[in-house]
Design goal:
The complex is a heterodimer. Chain A is an alpha/beta fold. Chain A is about 25% helix and about 25% strand. Chain A is elongated and about 90 Å long. In chain B, about 75% of the residues lie in helices and about 0% in strands. The chains are: A alpha/beta, B mainly alpha.
């Protein structure tokens, strides 16, 4: 059985080419370009090529159209307009265990799933041992798969897929299956395929995987190609774009300046200042910044102490506290400007919440309890403070950890290998 | 790919697709059957039961003189008549309903993997042949119990049902894409089949036109005649009774219509195929 080429071989010319407009099926025409009120373009003007021996990554937020694209490429959905040209046997790994029947044994299900995916009986029989071996289900192979653990189920499904030997492979986020050792096996298998003459397109939300496996990356946004190019560049741009989008979204919703006062004090304004002393939304990695607050005392307060905290989720990443360093504001009456200057921050790019407490001098009671001041957005490492030459540099540089320190590796040179 | 205009190439392509998928179809048939049987304790019994239950009820109603069914004097026992009728009717209705539901039932598969979708419809409908085999055994057993000796040629009756199967499959291919969009389709069909059964010689024979005394009877005669399944039932009954049948105009017409509907359904399904995944 031919998989996608049966459908899409109207252009004998080759390769994957020019895919646009998933939506309603049928060839392009003027009327086909009009949408009914409830419809939208899942994909629009998407056009790229994948060559033999190439691995291309597809990234984008949920609903960007990546899976729709795969469905169009594999022939599950016909494009409303535009063409797909496929030269070679194509397999889309959108789901594992396609066609499995819970009452039937693993053996029977290998034959069923294999047949659905386009293998002949002879081919399955030939590869049967390898499939069972790869899946690691062992003696369970003759047991109905409803008795399998979910891991075994998925492993068996993936093993069938892994033995298809297609020339073009579309992989949609299914590598996150099975335990560690099985995942290693899958990666090994994909590397084997990559080394061969196969064209691979990979969808993953793990940018780590994308950057380390793919040379070229296509970034989808709202059904359109936002950027296409070398993996490192696209991943970097994508990360900072997502970060900014998240910052904007959270700024609008929950960070409206709420109740920042108590019976004793009121925080009138807060702002983040960059290294030039200008108020701004975000700070590049490693740059010094200031947090400036206008504190208004409703009654005379003697030596109040400020406790500031930066947190990511529930994790407190950093604190600047007068309870720790012994500083205090002296006699506070009326309005007063307080600046906290952080001179060598090591916060990784990301969004951090800032909270503030004001304590009495001895620290026993608080005058203001844990108010949210707003958020600090740390953006990409513009000044190249982080050494970044590794295989996943661009992805790791953005947000895999919360803090970064300078470090060196010390490895004895005369070790025996 | 999608022009409605007749062209030979399309049919060649459709036939080739169907042929290429023969292994897959067979796999799915076996899968459906063994899955179905292994999932229930009584497996085969459930397949045999529906016509038997209908037969018992109507035989009881007739014996108790609550319904009065005029049977021609020389004909087979009433029990056998009902059993044959319901078996054939359900053979047809199940083929249609299973084919109609096949796409919706395999929704997950349809939206995740590409393969010619005809396979799903054909393999779902083909399940009725196994049901038929089991029911034929029940009919044989009934003949033994009634000490009724059918003509040996009756064993050829299943061949007569091949066009009827094609009719069911063709209707299924017409309805399956519609059912994928509006699930009411299968409800509607079930409803139609439930009542259509009474407009065919399942529980009472078709009234003879010559002996029709009222216009009601004449009307019933014509309703029977317009129902294509009627003609298959007549032929099978004659085959069981006499070992031969006369292919009258009705049977020939029914066969031609069945085959025509099969091809129309197949073509329609093939046209709808690219839309199935997104419309589910």
């Amino acid at each position: 059985m031919t998989t996608a080429n049966g459908k899409a071989s109207s252009l004998p010319d080759s390769r994957l080419r020019q895919i646009s407009d998933g939506g309603r099926g049928r060839e392009s025409s003027v009327s086909g370009d009009r949408l009914r009120s409830s419809e939208f373009w899942a994909l629009r003007d998407v056009s790229f090529e994948v060559q033999r021996g190439e691995c291309v990554g597809l990234i984008g937020a949920n609903g960007a159209g990546k899976s729709t694209l795969f469905k169009v490429l594999s022939g599950i959905i016909a494009p409303t307009s535009g063409t797909v040209a496929v030269n070679g046997r194509l397999t889309a790994l959108i789901e594992v265990g396609s066609g499995f029947h819970p009452m039937l044994s693993g053996r029977e299900n290998i034959y069923i799933s294999g047949a659905i995916l386009g293998m002949s009986k002879q081919e399955i029989t030939r590869k049967f041992d390898a499939i069972v071996d790869f899946s690691g289900v062992g003696d369970f192979i003759d047991m109905p798969i409803k008795f399998y653990s979910s891991g075994m189920h998925v492993r068996l499904g993936f093993s069938v897929l892994a033995h298809l030997d297609p020339e073009i492979m579309l992989i949609d986020e299914i590598l996150a299956v099975g335990d560690m050792s099985f995942q290693m096996k899958c990666m090994e298998r994909i590397n084997q395929m990559r080394a061969g003459d196969m064209a691979i397109a990979l969808v993953s939300h793990s940018l780590f995987r994308i950057e380390s496996l793919c040379a070229r990356v296509v970034w989808f946004d709202k059904g359109q190609v936002k950027m296409i190019g070398a993996a490192k560049d696209v991943v970097r741009e994508y990360r900072s774009f997502e970060l900014q989008k998240a910052a904007k979204a959270s700024d609008k919703s929950k960070y409206s300046r709420g109740n920042m006062e108590s019976a004793f004090v009121k925080i009138e304004t807060t702002e983040v200042l960059n290294s030039d002393g200008q108020p701004c939304q975000s700070i590049p990695f490693g740059d010094e910044f200031c947090l400036r607050m206008q504190v208004f005392a409703k009654q005379k307060l003697k030596n109040p102490r400020i406790h500031l905290v930066w947190q990511s989720g529930v994790v407190v990443v950093f604190q600047a506290s007068m309870l720790l360093d012994g500083y205090n504001l002296g006699l506070l009456a009326g309005s007063c400007s307080v600046v906290c200057k952080v001179s060598a921050p090591r916060l990784m790019p990301g969004i951090y919440e800032m909270r503030l407490w004001i304590y009495s001098e001895e620290g026993a009671i608080y005058l203001l309890e844990g108010v949210l001041l707003g958020q600090l957005v740390i953006t990409a490492d513009k000044n190249k403070r982080i050494k970044a030459n590794g295989p996943f540099a661009e992805g790791l540089k953005m947000a895999e950890s919360l803090v970064h320190f300078e470090y060196d590796w010390i490895v004895p040179k005369d070790r025996v290998v | 790919m999608g022009r409605a205009r007749f062209s030979l190439n399309v049919w060649v392509l459709m036939c080739r697709e169907m042929w290429d998928c023969r292994q897959l179809s067979w796999r799915l048939i076996v899968r459906n059957l063994s899955g179905q049987v292994r999932q229930s304790f009584l497996g085969w019994v459930w397949i045999a039961l529906p016509p038997v239950a209908t037969t018992i009820i109507f035989a009881l109603l007739k014996k108790a003189s609550i319904v009065n069914v005029p049977m021609p004097s020389e004909s087979m026992p009433y029990v056998l008549f009902v059993l044959l009728g319901t078996t054939i009717w359900q053979f047809f209705s199940q083929a249609t309903i299973m084919a109609t539901n096949s796409i919706v039932n395999a929704g997950n598969l349809v939206s995740k993997v590409y393969f010619p979708r005809e396979v799903l419809v054909v393999s779902a409908a083909a399940g009725v042949w196994l049901n038929l085999a089991i029911r034929v055994a029940v009919i044989g057993l009934t003949c033994l119990l009634l000490a009724y000796k059918p003509a040996p040629a009756a064993l050829l009756a299943p061949l007569l049902l091949v066009p009827l199967f094609l009719l069911g499959l063709g209707l299924g291919m017409l309805f399956a894409p519609i059912n994928a969009m509006m699930h009411d389709m299968s409800r509607m069909l079930e409803f139609a089949f439930q009542f259509g059964m009474f407009l065919a010689p399942t529980i009472y024979p078709t009234p003879k036109l010559a002996s029709c005394t009222t216009s009601w009877q004449t009307g019933l005669y014509w309703l029977h005649t317009l129902n294509p399944v009627t003609h298959y039932m007549h032929a099978v009954n004659e085959l069981v009774e006499r070992g031969s049948f006369i292919p009258d105009v009705g049977l020939v017409a029914a066969t031609i219509i069945s085959i025509l509907i099969f091809f129309i359904g197949w073509r329609f399904f093939h046209l709808c195929e690219p839309l199935l995944a997104e419309r589910l």
